[in-house]
Every structure is written in C-alpha cells, then in structure tokens.
Amino acid sequence: MTILKRSLLSVVICITAQFTYAQHLFKGKVIDEQTHEPVEYASVVSVLSGKSAVTDRFGNFQLSLTADTAMLRLSYIGYRTKMIKATSSTKRMVISLSRGAIDLKEVHISPNLDNGSFHTLSALDLNLRPVNSSQDLMRLVPGLFIAQHMGGGKAEQIFVRGFDADHGTDINVSVDGMPVNMVSHIHGQGYADLHFLIPETVSTFDYGKGPYYTEKGDFTTAGYLNFSTKDALDKSMVSLEAGQFNTFRAMAMLNLLDSTARNKGENWYIAGEYNYTDGPFTFAEHYKRFNAFSKYTKQLNASNKLSLSASAFTTTWRASGEIPERAVAGRTTAIDANGNPVIIPQYANPIGRFGTIDSAQGGKTSRFNFIAKLNTDLGNNLSIENEAYYTHYNFLLHVNSTFFADTAGGEREHNQDRDMFGYNGKLTKRNDWGNTVLTSSVGFGTRFDRTYGTERSFVTEQYQFLKYFEFGNIKQNNSNVYLDETLQAGKWLLNGGVRFDYFNFNYHDTTKTQVIVSPKINIQYTANDAIQFYLKAGKGFHSNNAITVISNSAFKGLPAAYGADLGLNWKPVPHLYINAALWYLYLQQEFVYSDDGNIVPGGKTRRTGVDFSARYQLTHWLFADLNVNLARPRFADSAKNTGYLPLAPTLSSTGGLDFKFDNGINGGLSYRYLHDRPGNNTYTLVANGYFVTDLKINYTKKRYEVGLTIENLFNTKWNEFAAEEISRLRGETAPVDQMSFTPGTPFFAKLRIAVFF
C-alpha cells in the first residue's frame, strides 16, 4: 500500500511540475508591415528551447514556455526573419514582418503544421512564379493539368491524380470559401468556371489531395483547391498587355481608402479586367471577357472583423471545337464495329490543324457573386467564423463534336440559369495543457441551388430548335455538419473527424434524399526539424447530377470513395524541400461524362500512385522546382485488357528554373509534360502526350514593371485536348469511331507593362 501511495504521489508531482513549468503563455499576432493584414503559417520559434508554433488564419499564435521571458524568431516565406525579446503576458502582442527576399533556409518543418506541406509549396510557387490568368493559378498545383477544347470561355478540363475530372467533378474548387463548382450543371457535374477570378487579387491558395478533410465535402475525391483574395492592397496598379493573335488585356486595381483608414483596420479596393483574343485558329474566336471585383474589410473592434466582396464577369466567344484526326492527318487509326483498330485514309477535304468544321459553335456565360464574412474572437481561445454567399449564373453553349453522325444533327444547345446561395460556419476552441494542444472545431454549412430552364437540346446551325434531350428545373440542397479534433503533443499530431452530408435532389417534381457519413483520420510525426512523416485516411463520395439521381435508379446515388496517403516532408539540406507520398483511392462507382453532357455508368475504380515534389534554392537568386506524378487508374471490375480509364493521366511532370535578381530582373523557364493516355478503355485509341516549355521575363522596379511572356517557346506541335468521338464528316457514308482533338497554342509572345502607385 505504501508503494502504491508513493507511486501515485510521484505521478501527481510529475503532472503538477509539468503544468507549473509550462505556465508561461506567450500570445501574439503576426501581421504584414505594409497592409497590416494577418500572416498565416508564420513560424514562431523559441531560440533557447527550440519549441515552435505556427500562426493560424488570423495571424494568431500561442507558445507555452517554462521561462517568463524568451527570445523569439519569426519567419515566413517572402518576409525578413525577425528576432524579438518577449515577456509572457495575458495581453496579445502584435508583431509586424516586412517583406524581403525568399530564402528556403527559413522554411521550417514543424509539428504544428497539419497539411502545411502543401501550403509551403503553394506559398513558394506563388511568390516565385508570375501569373496573369486563373489558368496560371490552377497550374501551380503539382500534378494538376488543364485543357480547353471548345473555346476559351468554357471552364477548363481538369486532370489530376489519375482522374479525367471533366470540368471539376472530382476536385472541390472554391474562392474565399465560396463554391466555384456548379452542381447538376448541364455541361458536366461540378463545372468549375474560375474565369471570374482576377489573378492579381489573389493573396494565397491552399490545396489538399484526397478525401481527408472534414471541411471539404462534395467533389473532394481527388482533392480540393481554394483561392483567397487580398483583404488589402499594398499598392494600386494599372497593367496593359498585348500579344499575337490580336490578344489584349487591361487590368487595374485601385485602393479607395488612404493609409489613415488602413491604420484603423479599414480597407477597400476595386479591380477590373478586360480580355480579348482571336486565338491561333483560322476561324477567329472573338473571345471577350469583362471582370469586376471589389472588397471591403473592417476591423469593427478588437474581436470582430467584417469582410464584404462582390465580383462579376461576362464572356462571349466563338469556337473552332474539336476536329477528328482524319480531317488533318494522312492516315489515322479508328475503331471498327468490333472494337478493333483499323487504318483509314485521310478525309477527302482536309483542313489545317487550326481549321474548323462547324462555325456555329461558341457561347456566352456570366456570373455575379457576393460574399459576406464575420470572424469573431469570443475570448478564452474560442472563435467563430460566419460566411454567407450568393451567386447568380447564366450559361449558353453551342457545341458539335459528332457533326453529321446524329440523325437530328450534331448541333447541341446547353442552356442554364441559376441562383445559388449558402452559409458556412465554424466554431473553434483551443485548449493548451502544457506541451499539449487540443483544437476542437464544429462546422455547419448549407447550400441551395435553383436552376431555371436547364436545357440540352438539338438545334440547327442557325440555332433553330429541333428537339429536347433534357429540359426542366432543378432544385438541390446540400447541408452538412462536421466535428474535427486535432491533438498536438510533442512530435505527434493526431487529427480525426467525421462529416455528415445531407442531399436533397429534385427534378421534374421528383425528390430523392441521401445522407452520407464521412470519417477522416490523419496522423503526423515530426522526427526533428528536418523530416516529418504523415498518414492520411478517409472516406468521401463521388459527386452526382440531380438528373441522373432522379432518372436512373441503376446508378448509385453518391458512391463512396476510400483513400489513403503515406508521405513525408523532408529537408535533407537547408535549401532543399521535398514532399513525397504513396497514395490509394477506391470508388464504389464512377460516372463518365461523355459527349459534353451525357452521363454513362462506370464500374468500380481503383487508383494507386506516387507524388513527388522538390523545391531547391541554388543561389540567393536562382530556384529550381520539380514535380513528378505517377498514377495507375483502372476499372476494378473489368478484364485486364479492357480496364483502362479513358483520358486518365498516368504520368505527368512539371518543373523549371525561376530567378529573382536584386536589380529587378525576374522570371522563369518552365515545362509541363503529360504522357500518352488511353483514348478508350482498351487502349486501342491514344490521346497523345506533350512536352511544352514556357518563358517569362520581367523587369520590376518600385513604380513600374515590364514583362515578356512566351508560351510554347520551341513552337511544339501538341494537342491540348483529345477524346474519342463517333463522328461523320460531310460526304462520308458512315460514322467513324476515332480520336478528335483541339490543337495546343503554337509559339505565342505577349508584352506587358504595369505601373504601381
């Protein structure tokens, strides 16, 4: 009994000592010196003990130390490292960081970073690589490839992690937390048209791969991508661009409030953009796009910050569209009635690679968005985030990929008007127990979509109506609630959560509902400040269209998706950062969106792969990056020789060299490589791969910048998009099953001049 008492007393003494020695709490907020806005993911390290913390999205950090005074080192990518002597206090100190040169040595592998490896990569790439389009922004995600195939006004086709994700079916895309993906879109589930985003307004972007994140629900099978716009401008600017193919762009961003308002926590700016191009095609695209954006933020008091933003864009364009290989090449491969490859001669009236067969294709689209956010510090390490959003959207497209193969004619019209409105809320509580931190979150969200006159119909080349293929109004609601717990203790970080999604689909006055439960677990171990291991696992679901859910009972409504990642973050030397992962993803059923709107049932699918990313700083002005992504996508319930997933990427790579000289010269040489992919499930048709190189050079000074961009530097002949199509050209007696393609941009040079004030 005496031994037991002594043992219990020893345990009590140890626990008491731990809390006694860890009672000194250092609280702070890290802000940008110019804009006074919070700096997220900044590293805060105690020089003496080595203990570290990372700032949250509001710039806040907490650090428990045994001493009541400490020397703290603060650093973040693109900012000058700062040393401060701090004293523990209940009052939060505010620390400003000034912008400076990029130094990979200051990138720290920390046990506090959950999913921080991807944020490190995105911050590096956004700081180093100049972008001037939303397409450039999407290409910054390692392993993500995009393609246009029906004129520049459509949402890009997305390829990532072994998915032909159509226009967004398998990747969740958002801006400032507002969904970009359109549910039950007439041109493809998850249609994610990002053209309303002005790239110069983007401050950061965040991405994750796999279905492992409780905050992310619909479309998050391959992963998610979220862009955050600037709360404040460090300077106003006007930019003008001009290039080949009658390409023009004008952009302006203007501060509407002075520095006095900024010092009081109030910011307001506007931005506008105009784009025009004819493109490289024989049939000029006449692509026109207008964008407008405005954002107002105000620190209402010490506890509340309000953010209001509105954006609008409108686009019109003509499209050359996809053309069959036989319309250009001498002898090409097609598929006969038995599915066997056959060689067919060239079409009798061949056209050039940039020619067109049907000049009636093209479209117009517009989108208006409004977002309101209120972030509140409730005290006692408790905070709440509230966001409401509204979108009004119009879409009209004329497309023809089969030409004379259909008896009703190949011209199709896709038409949809939509209202979307929703709410996202999140309550977060942080508990510090010595060296252990528990962060608990409860989230709730709801989204309502209402479409009017959703239409897919056959029309003539003069757009005269022939017959409906689909027509009706859609009502769709997705509500969710999730619980998320993150425990950080020493070198370990454990994250677990569960998400509940409720779906209500209504089409032609028929309603179906479904509830999905999605558990997630993430484990991270930081061996030291040079290497970190992680395991992610979770269940998600494959998205689905309301029309399909209502009209086809043979399809699973929302099939489950199961995934796992085993990865590491590694800094073998101070200026080299590596992220690598082995991954697996299984879907109960996958839907195939073919022929621009048709949905056909797929079977069970299985994907395995390897992701590798490296960032290396060779000198203080020269940086190298490399991304290699391998995937093995297959139908899980098909024979070996018929199990290929059409257009699914199997090998892709991006990389390059970026430079930033002290005299203002900066830019980079980059490449993107996409390997050959199966054109059909037997791989008897092939979507040819490509290797394309781009060059960007800028001369940047305090008041102005001059730049040159060259796409496809070596004038490579490549296909941006290719897909199997059954088409019949004028004069042909029967349809032909063959690959059709959209050619990639040839050598294209563009000049830019910007003025800052």
Overview in brief:
The chain has 757 residues and is mainly beta.
Key words describing this protein structure:
5 helices; 55% strand; 757 residues; 22-stranded antiparallel beta barrel; 7% helix; Maltoporin, Chain A; Immunoglobulin-like; five-stranded antiparallel beta sheet; globular; mainly beta
Descriptive account of the structure:
With 757 residues, the chain is mainly beta. The chain folds into two domains: 24-114, Immunoglobulin-like (Sandwich), CATH 2.60.40.1120; 131-756, Beta Barrel (Maltoporin, Chain A), CATH 2.40.170. It has a 22-stranded antiparallel beta barrel. The longest helix is centred in the first third of the chain and has 20 residues, at 2-21. The protein is globular, with a radius of gyration of 27 Å. The termini are far apart.
